[in-house]
Amino acid sequence: MAPETQRPSTQPSGGDSPTGGPSAGGLVRRRTVQAGGLEVPILEAGSGPLVLCLHGFPDHAASWVGILDRLAQDGYWAVAPAQRGYWPGGAATDGSYRASATGQDVLNLIEALGRERADLIGHDLGARAAYAAASLDATRVRKLVGMAVPYGPQLRTAWLTDGDQQRRSWYMFFFQTAMAEPAVVLNDFAFIDRLWQEWSPGYELPDAERSALKETLRAPGVLTETLGYYRQLFSPPTDEATRALEARASGAITVPSLYLHGADDNCMSVELSDGMNAVFKNGFERIVVPRAGHFLHLEQPKTVADHILSFLNN
User: Fold this and answer.
1) How confident is the model at residue 26 (pLDDT cuts 50, 70, 90)?
2) Burial, 308: exposed, middle or buried (Cβ in 10 Å; 0-12, 13-18, 19+)?
3) What is the mean pLDDT of residues 265-289?
4) Measuring CA to CA, how many Å separate 292 from each of 17, 83, 196, 299, 303?
5) What is the pTM of this model?
6) Could you give the CA distance from residue 187 to residue 254 in angstroms, rounded to a whole number?
7) Cα 237 to Cα 234: distance, rounded to the nearest angstrom
8) What is the pLDDT of residues 156-200, one digit of tens each?
9) Read out DSSP for 98-111?
10) Is the peptide bond before 58 cis (omega within 30 degrees of 0)?
11) DSSP E strand stretches across the chain
């Protein structure tokens, strides 16, 4: 069993937000890349070893801008792609929003960018995609950083048995209903504002970033596709090939890994990451970041970037 080191963050947090947050990013570039049958929009900065930054919900690639800048300053080629379904024309060609499909997207993008391997940083459902990519083909992943969504069977168990986590995950169950789309868009996406407020108490997403996120979700077809991630979450695949692929995508992880979780996360309980080391077979460290909720890379950008760079550089 790989050793686990658990410790609270010791990085300074005072004055953290102005350094490396989304308002930075003068060096970030935009373009599209043909990968896996989709024209994937990406944000990128710097040059050097490739690092992919993968967003979750309700979020988009732009929330990585501050981290992209920090990675670029440290000599990396930092790339944040839009996840499948998050842009008009970006709907999954195979209809799948399962972990194996998003993990394969990551591997396809590494190839499309002309690299053999990459470091992966994933937040929320982006973490799930990163875990799946590393499970599907560990030879393509050098190091892995997961944030805010743990890996392992304990999460599914919690949805069945843990009343506290069931309360935190109420939105997942609501998304199974036909009411979800009209409810989410009502009153200028007040539903999305509520999720951010609940998940990261005390953090206020700046107005410009909030508006940009809502524009992403407002684009034709995007909201229904993004809800597909949750509508497929609790339903097992019906065909043998997909079941086998999903099993591969949820196996043990054999690349060095770091996991970061906000101490005040009201979406995913930090306790759900207890015991994660059991499924990481080549080194694992967990760091609980104080004074941070679910969107810890925005709430404590310097602290999170410092931890990531320390891990990638060693």
Assistant:
1) low
2) buried
3) 96
4) 11, 24, 12, 6, 10
5) 0.91
6) 45
7) 10
8) 899 889 999 999 999 999 999 999 999 999 999 999 999 999 999
9) SHHHHHHHHHHHHH
10) yes
11) 4-8, 29-35, 38-45, 50-54, 77-81, 118-123, 141-147, 257-262, 284-289
* Token pair recorded at residue 178: 């036909």
DSSP annotation of 166: H
* Digit-coded pLDDT (tens) for 227-242: 999 999 988 888 999 9
CB neighbour list of residue 247: distance below 8 Å, 6 or more residues apart: none
Cα dist. 279→100, 102, 135, 257, 302 in Å? 17, 20, 11, 11, 29
Fold of 4-313: Rossmann fold (3.40.50)
Task: State how far the Cα of 171 lies from the Cα of 148, in Å rounded to an integer.
Answer: 16
Which of the 8 DSSP states describes residue 86? S
Buried b (16+ CB within 10 A) or exposed e, 5-36: eeeebebeeeebbeebbbebbeebeeeebebb
- For the chain, domain boundaries: 4-313
What is the identity of the amino acid at 291? R
